[in-house]
Automatic annotation (TrEMBL):
Keyword RNA-binding appears in the UniProt entry: no
Residue spans crossing the bilayer: 23-40, 76-101, 113-129, 160-187, 199-221, 251-268, 275-294, 300-317
Pfam families: EpsG
Lineage, opening ranks: Bacteria, Pseudomonadati, Bacteroidota, Bacteroidia, Bacteroidales
Protein's UniProt name: EpsG family protein
Record keywords, A-Z: Membrane, Transmembrane, Transmembrane helix
Organism: Paraprevotella clara YIT 11840
Keyword match Transmembrane helix: yes
């Protein structure tokens, strides 16, 4: 795990903005991209499953989903790669490079403290999470690259339609977690954007927290087991969560309390509910609600949190107290992730 600590230290001492920040940024992004490109097969939970699927995938649809189910767009992408190369780990490594590039481009387009964005992203575990949920992060990367070209908090009518179609496309052909981004479109409806208040989000934060604390979420969602949700895989995960006698929660109530208190702090300190604050708070509200279900559902919140990191960057320079609280929170999360071995990610090894 030493490599993760070294990267965190380098990120923490790098200039957050200014002339020297660009040079440091190039070094950091090269390091993170190289780590993703050269990572070994053991680094990540489903890498072996991906390798088996990639080895068998061609443009013939009958060859798709040999070991596990992938979306059709992802299968076509693999087939195109296999028509040129015959090295599955290269495909996985190149997608990791795409993740890093998209994170950085989004950071530079939305925050003047772009190195701070990368630091917080790394400390909060989203870089290493990309080693595990690769198709979701591929979809996130495409969306972030698109988001660099629009004001995601004030979409024009044309941009609203384009964003809607992009969410549908990514959700249908690459990963259905993309549908959580309909919350972004919800924010862009003028009557909602101008009327959403801190008090509304605060009530939802506290309400969803206590729903999980009192263990009533599954009871409330039980009627939905009679409906078909998106696809067979989602339906299976949801029904297994509803019917299980005991749920192994990915988030302890202590962690959920800690995260919710931090989200309330962000909401209290923010001068207004802009799109980045909105996304961060919606991410926590969704996480509160889904944390007692199958852990796979909680990962959808990564979409909102990654975009919401811009709100943390904005608050970072607001006062010394804000800066200290943000760094303390992110550092605790980073240490917790290290102690938990990043959940499912084992220590980093090179693909040699």
């Amino acid at each position: 795990m030493l490599i993760y600590i070294i990267i965190a230290v380098i990120l923490s001492i790098a200039p957050k903005s200014g002339k020297k920040a660009n040079l440091w940024n190039r070094i950091i992004i090269l390091a993170l991209a190289s780590m993703g490109l050269l990572r070994g097969e053991p680094v990540g939970v489903d890498v072996r499953k991906y390798i088996i699927n990639i080895q068998h995938t061609t443009f013939d649809p009958s060859s798709w989903n040999f070991y596990t189910v992938f979306e059709p767009g992802y299968n076509l992408l693999i087939a195109a790669f296999n028509s040129v190369f015959d090295y599955p780990m290269l495909f996985i490594g190149l997608t990791n490079v795409l993740y890093v590039i998209s994170f950085n481009k989004f950071a530079k387009s939305k925050s003047r403290d772009f190195n701070l964005f990368i630091l917080l992203l790394f400390l909060l575990g989203y870089y290493t999470q990309s080693y595990n949920i690769m198709r979701q992060y591929f979809a996130i990367s495409i969306f972030l690259l698109y988001a660099t070209h629009v004001d995601i908090g004030h979409l024009t009518k044309k941009q609203f339609i384009m964003t809607f179609l992009l969410i549908l496309f990514l959700g249908m052909f690459f990963h259905n977690s993309t549908y959580i981004m309909f919350f972004l479109l919800l924010y862009n409806i003028p009557i909602i954007r101008t009327n959403v208040k801190k008090a509304h989000l605060c009530i939802l934060l506290i309400f969803t927290y206590f729903m999980t604390y009192l263990q009533v979420v599954r009871q409330l969602l039980q009627p939905l087991t009679t409906f078909f949700l998106l696809n067979d895989k989602t339906n299976t995960y949801f029904n297994s969560a509803m019917n299980a006698d005991n749920i192994t929660e990915e988030y302890s109530i202590i962690r959920l309390t800690f995260d919710t208190l931090f989200a309330l702090f962000i909401l209290y300190k923010a001068s207004k509910v802009d799109v980045y604050v909105f996304c961060y708070i919606i991410g926590q509200i969704y996480l509160n609600f889904s944390s007692s279900l199958n852990p796979l559902f909680t990962r959808l919140s990564s979409w909102m949190f990654i975009i919401g990191i811009v709100a943390l960057c904005n608050l970072y320079n607001q006062s010394k107290l804000d800066r200290k609280v943000i760094i303390l929170y992110c550092t605790i999360i980073f240490i917790n992730n290290l102690l938990k071995n990043y959940g499912d990610t084992i220590p980093y090894v090179l693909n040699i």
